[in-house]
């Protein structure tokens, strides 16, 4: 896999012609947006003054007009940026992924199947709305992997019967083949309870979590502090989480700085990185040539695809030839 | 009067919970030890094959090979206590480790497909044994903690629960492989 500096070179050299064109479009879009925005604000202000005089600002009709303004604004924004966003994905993200490894295929509109997401056992909750984009599939060093942006939500009804949506998980979700055979399920989650309530009470809460399998304690104190592990077979959990694997997961956690959810089910590793935002989207209000912006695209791709090397999933063990 | 009854009820309830958690921990230890036993047996099955295959090549390591065979015979005797099993396992692991390292010095051995297959199987089993040992040690630590810590220690004393021994990580396992030494042989 290419290094970050090689990829930065690729971004600024190979992609420069496309970036330049896209950047031009982006600047046009921004100036158009400013113009429309200004017009919209004036019209809105005039309407508000008229409404305030005639029907009152808190009249249902005023509310309806306000909602209408927001909807029209959103619609205009989307229709103006749609083509640009699409172009960005085909002309920048797609070649960038190809540069990282030619064995990877990219589809901007597809996502990891809900089946795989649920199989991971990471988020045991019913899902009412499942969406995603930026799907990448292929192999790194012979290890099959796939990942995409995922947004999984569930809904509840409050006492007045209104529907409320809650995010179960939003971020990158990756599935790759694991280099050991196993039958059991092992789930690794960020350690919330011990962090908020301390070892004694937090530990007690963790061992009485009824939505999960049994709590498994491991022999690496630093790992135990950062994560909590549940599973239905303590021996297999120790088999998967060898001392070196625990160290590598800790190292990886330090690099990504987002909450990390990892599970081992059916000979596969499932990794959720809770970024809480949609990644690989075209920047509108920052320049595409901006270094920070470029690094965000490159680093996100690199550390996601780098999981394979980082966790040494490409080292075939004797049992899996 | 009712207050005393309520207090007594609560104390009984807590005692029952502690008793049950101790039993759960004790059974967990025994459960995992059974699994450790299973993987150890897998290794016993592999040893005669390995010794037979390498003995014709490894003339200088005759004593080590004999030691492995003897340890295996000892470890397979019936009615061994858990402590005996644990100490025999440690000896067997270090003896097998010595053979694996010595094998590096015999190029003929490395060319032998059968031996290499045996060694791969042995490595895989060693990995499983290591996992089982670590899981067992964790379960034993949980139980030992409960036996010694207040307030569960009172009930544990009454139940006559004994501390268990953990598997010691052998010196060979703790040390990293010295690659330089391997090359200089």
Give the helix level of chain A as a range of percent: 40-55%
The main sheet of chain B comes to: none
Elements of chain B, N to C (H/E): HHHHHHHH
- Decide which structural class fits the backbone of chain B: mainly alpha
Helix content of chain B: over 70%
Please name the two chains that share the biggest interface, counting residues whose Cβ lies under 8 Å from a Cβ on the partner chain.
A-B, 14 and 18 residues
Order of helices and strands of chain A: HHHEHEEEEHEHEHHEEHH
Cα-based radius of gyration of chain B, to the nearest Å: 23 Å
Q: Write down the CATH topology of chain B.
A: de novo design (two linked rop proteins)
Number of helices of chain B: 8
Q: Estimate the mean pLDDT confidence of chain B.
A: 84
Q: Separation of termini of chain B? A: 83 Å
Q: Can you describe what's shown?
A:
The complex is a heterodimer of chains A (about 325) and B (about 180). Chain A has about 325 residues and is α+β, with helices and mostly antiparallel strands. Chain A has ten helices and nine strands. Chain A has helices at about 5-15, 15-55, 60-100, 115-120, 190-205, 220-225, 235-240, 245-255, 290-305, 305-310, and strands at about 105, 130-140, 145-155, 165-175, 185-190, 215, 225-230, 260-265, 270-275. Chain A has a nine-stranded antiparallel β-sheet, sandwiched between helices. In chain A, a hairpin with a 5-residue loop joins strand 3 and strand 4 (about 165-175). In chain A, helix 2 (about 15-55) packs antiparallel against helix 3 (about 60-100) and helix 3 (about 60-100) crosses helix 9 (about 290-305). The radius of gyration of chain A is 24 Å and the shape is globular. The model of chain A has no long low-confidence stretch (mean pLDDT about 90). Chain B has about 180 residues and is mainly alpha-helical. Chain B has a single domain (about 25-185), classed as de novo design (two linked rop proteins) (Up-down Bundle). Chain B is built from eight helices and no strands. Chain B has helices at about 1-55, 60-75, 80-105, 105-110, 115-150, 150-160, 170-175, 180-185. In chain B, helix 1 runs antiparallel to helix 5. Chain B is rod-shaped and about 85 Å long. The interface of A and B includes residues 235, 237, 238 and 317 of A.
């Amino acid at each position: 896999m290419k290094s970050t500096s090689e990829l930065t070179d690729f971004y600024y050299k190979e992609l420069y012609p496309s970036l330049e064109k896209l950047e031009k479009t982006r600047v046009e879009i921004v100036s158009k947006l400013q113009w429309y925005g200004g017009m919209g604000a004036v019209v809105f202000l005039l309407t508000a003054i008229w409404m305030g005089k005639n029907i009152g600002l808190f009249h249902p009709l005023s509310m309806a007009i306000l909602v209408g303004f927001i909807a029209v604004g959103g619609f205009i924004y989307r229709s103006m940026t749609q083509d640009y966003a699409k172009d960005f994905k085909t002309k920048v993200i797609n070649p960038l992924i190809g540069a990282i490894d030619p064995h990877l295929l990219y589809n901007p509109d597809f996502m990891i199947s809900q089946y795989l997401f649920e199989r991971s056992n990471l988020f045991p909750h019913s899902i009412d709305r499942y969406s995603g984009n930026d799907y990448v599939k292929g192999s790194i060093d012979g290890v099959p992997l796939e990942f995409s942006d995922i947004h999984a939500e569930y809904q509840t009804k409050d006492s007045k019967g209104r529907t409320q949506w809650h995010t179960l998980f939003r971020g990158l979700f990756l599935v790759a083949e694991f280099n050991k055979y196993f039958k059991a399920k092992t789930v690794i989650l960020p350690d919330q309870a011990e962090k908020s309530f301390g070892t004694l009470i937090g530990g007690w809460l963790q061992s009485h979590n009824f939505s999960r399998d049994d709590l498994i304690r491991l022999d690496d104190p630093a790992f135990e502090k950062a994560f909590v592990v549940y599973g239905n077979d303590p021996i297999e959990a120790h088999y998967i989480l060898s001392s070196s694997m625990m160290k590598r997961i800790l190292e990886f956690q330090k690099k990504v700085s987002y909450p990390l959810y990892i599970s081992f089910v059916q000979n596969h590793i499932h990794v959720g990185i809770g970024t809480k935002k949609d990644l690989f989207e075209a920047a509108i209000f920052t320049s595409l040539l901006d270094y920070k912006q470029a690094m965000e695209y490159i680093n996100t791709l690199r550390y996601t695809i780098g999981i394979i090397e980082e966790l040494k999933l490409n080292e075939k063990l004797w049992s899996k030839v | 009067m009712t207050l005393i009854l309520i207090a007594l009820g609560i104390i009984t309830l807590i005692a029952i919970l502690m008793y049950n958690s101790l039993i759960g921990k004790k059974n967990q230890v025994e459960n995992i030890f059974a699994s450790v036993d299973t993987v150890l047996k897998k290794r016993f099955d592999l040893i005669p094959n390995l010794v037979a295959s390498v003995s014709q090549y490894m003339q200088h390591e005759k004593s080590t090979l004999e030691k492995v065979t003897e340890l295996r015979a000892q470890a397979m005797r019936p009615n061994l206590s858990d402590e005996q099993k644990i100490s025999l396992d440690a000896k067997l692991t270090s003896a097998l480790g010595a053979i694996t390292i010595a094998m590096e010095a015999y190029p003929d051995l490395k060319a032998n497909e059968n031996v290499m297959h045996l060694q791969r199987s042995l490595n895989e089993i060693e990995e499983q044994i290591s996992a089982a040992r670590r899981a067992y040690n964790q379960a034993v630590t949980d139980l030992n903690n409960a036996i010694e810590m207040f307030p569960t220690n009172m009930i544990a004393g009454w139940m006559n629960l004994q501390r268990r021994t953990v598997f010691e990580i052998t010196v060979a396992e703790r040390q990293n492989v010295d690659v330089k030494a391997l090359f200089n042989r």
